[in-house]
Write a structure and sequence with these properties.
single chain; alpha+beta; Alpha-D-Glucose-1,6-Bisphosphate, Chain A, domain 3; 4 domains; six-stranded antiparallel β-sheet; 15 helices
């Protein structure tokens, strides 16, 4: 009996697609074919269209198994009679945009985001945006059944959609700066890009350069699915060191780093300082609230108290903390908008950022394009990006420890740990559970806070800690140690190392 449910990773399909590291392959050709057929039937039912009237786009990032999987996906669609736009190397956001600019009914991006080179997967879009977890489950159930489209003969159309997508971003810059492409609106700006050998190299070559920007000093623009230089991930320390070094070495005005499939991004200012995590959220919020006074900014659960103060006191907006997981944050912003709350931005500290003006699509290239427009606007007034976020208070210390759950039913065990932890916290007078606690247990303590939660996808319990004084993180962990040392199926070796 077919069982593909283990391939569900939140709102994506992910698994081992290559045995280069010794793992057992579960993203097999039959699995990809079946799941693609499931998506074809999902689309047909959603729109009430026969398969022969459907059109879908297929793209991929730079992973080593991309071509194998792409052939399976395209062939499954073709055999159902569906017209397929073969978009080749593409970003994930561009695949959604085919539903807007190429009138497709759906799209598939072959990607595993920032995961290791042996992994790969499928990400699905309809005209309504990315799918939710319940949609993925529905597709998998179809894939596991004997229900299939009748064999037919669809068309395959090679399509350079990234050219269309890049042109859209260039137009966005030109419109924002009220200049034409021929006027080279980015002339005089030195902007470097680190694509981490993923799919993001197009941004330097096809967006920045044609508008006059100097991109010398950019690094790792050539696609290479083995990721030989660093993990393409704005949350990765080595990745951020790479783009910081590229900025300082070249004397650039701005540095940009993308994850593998360009749905996330981070920045570095001209001094070589990161604009990432809370600083990136603050910058995006400042740009958005300028045209949306009093707007509500939805973030994930691990944002700092300093950010909340910045959004609410300095910007005059409202900070709405929610759960980790980019779909969780996006769906919460959509829900608030539907209820009448002006919520134009949903953003995670991971670099996922979705703006209402851009279909609530998490698009790293769109976010950095907004930032570049603001940078150019500020320069005309003798200012820089730091003038927008200079009052953001950053913690003196911060840390994240990740405890692996060693028992099989990790979700049930993690839920029990959270319940026991809540009782432990309530028994400590110096701890206070946050008023906006929406995930795990977030607690205020002295001049800091901590949050214990269960990972969205993995058998891991991360704990995030911030403090506004030296050794504050250690003091918090020492208070928490008596609880964690008795959790039998929790690997707290990272905590032991931190305290010893």
């Amino acid at each position: 009996m077919k069982n593909y449910m283990s391939l569900k990773s939140g709102t994506d399909i992910r698994g081992v697609a290559s045995d280069i590291f010794g793992g057992e392959i579960n993203i097999t050709d039959p699995a990809v074919t079946d799941i693609t057929a499931g998506f074809a039937m999902f689309l047909s039912k959603k729109y009430g269209k026969p398969f022969g009237n459907l059109k879908v786009a297929v793209g991929h990032d730079s992973r080593i198994t991309a071509n194998r999987i792409k052939l399976c996906v395209i062939e499954a669609f073709r055999k159902a009679g569906i017209t397929v736009l073969d978009c080749g190397l593409s970003s994930t956001p561009a695949m959604f945009m085919t539903t807007v600019d190429a009138d497709t009914d759906g799209a598939v991006q072959i990607t595993a985001s920032h995961h290791p080179a042996d992994r790969n997967g499928l990400k699905f879009f309809t005209k309504d945006g990315g799918l939710d977890g319940c949609d993925i489950e529905a597709i998998i159930k179809i894939a596991q059944s004997d229900e299939r489209p009748a064999i037919s003969e669809g068309k395959i159309i090679p399509t350079d959609f990234m050219a269309t997508y890049s042109a859209r971003l260039r137009k966005m810059i030109c419109d924002g700066l009220k200049m034409s492409e021929g006027e080279l609106p980015l002339k005089g700006f030195h902007i470097v890009v680190d694509a981490g050998n993923g799919a993001g190299g197009f941004y330097a070559a096809d967006v920045l350069k044609p508008l006059g920007a100097d991109t010398t000093g950019s690094v790792y623009l050539t696609p290479d699915g083995m990721f030989p230089n660093h993990i393409p991930n704005p949350e990765n320390e080595a990745a951020m060191e790479s783009i910081c070094g590229a900025v300082t070495k070249s004397g650039a005005d701005l540095g940009i780093i993308f994850d593998t499939d360009v749905d996330r991004a981070g920045c570095v200012d001209k001094s070589g300082s990161e604009i990432n995590r809370n600083r990136l959220v603050a910058l995006a919020a400042a740009i958005v609230i300028e045209n949306n006074p009093g707007a509500t900014i939805v973030t994930d659960s691990v944002t700092s108290y300093g950010l909340k103060i910045f959004i609410e006191k300095d910007l005059g907006g409202k900070h709405h903390r929610f759960k980790r997981g980019y779909r969780n944050v996006i769906n919460e912003a959509i829900r608030l908008c539907q209820e009448g709350t002006n919520s134009p931005l949903a953003i995670e500290t991971s670099g996922h950022a979705a703006l209402r003006e851009n279909y609530f699509l998490d698009d790293g290239a769109y976010l950095v394009t907004k930032i570049i427009i603001k940078l150019a606007d500020l320069r005309q007034n003798g200012k820089d990006l730091d003038d927008l976020i200079g009052t953001l208070k950053c913690p003196v210390e911060s840390d994240e420890l990740r405890f692996s759950i060693t028992c099989p039913d990790f979700k049930d065990y993690g839920t029990k740990v959270i319940s026991a932890f809540e009782k432990f916290v309530n028994a400590e007078p110096s701890f206070k559970i946050a008023d906006d606690n929406r995930e795990g247990i977030r607690v205020s303590v002295n001049d800091g806070w901590f949050l214990l939660r269960l990972s969205v996808h993995d058998p891991i319990m991360p704990i995030n800690i911030e403090s506004d004084h030296i050794n504050g993180v250690r003091e918090i962990l020492e208070k928490l140690y008596p609880f964690f040392k008795f959790q039998a199926s929790l690997d707290i070796s990272s905590l032991d190392s931190r305290l010893n």
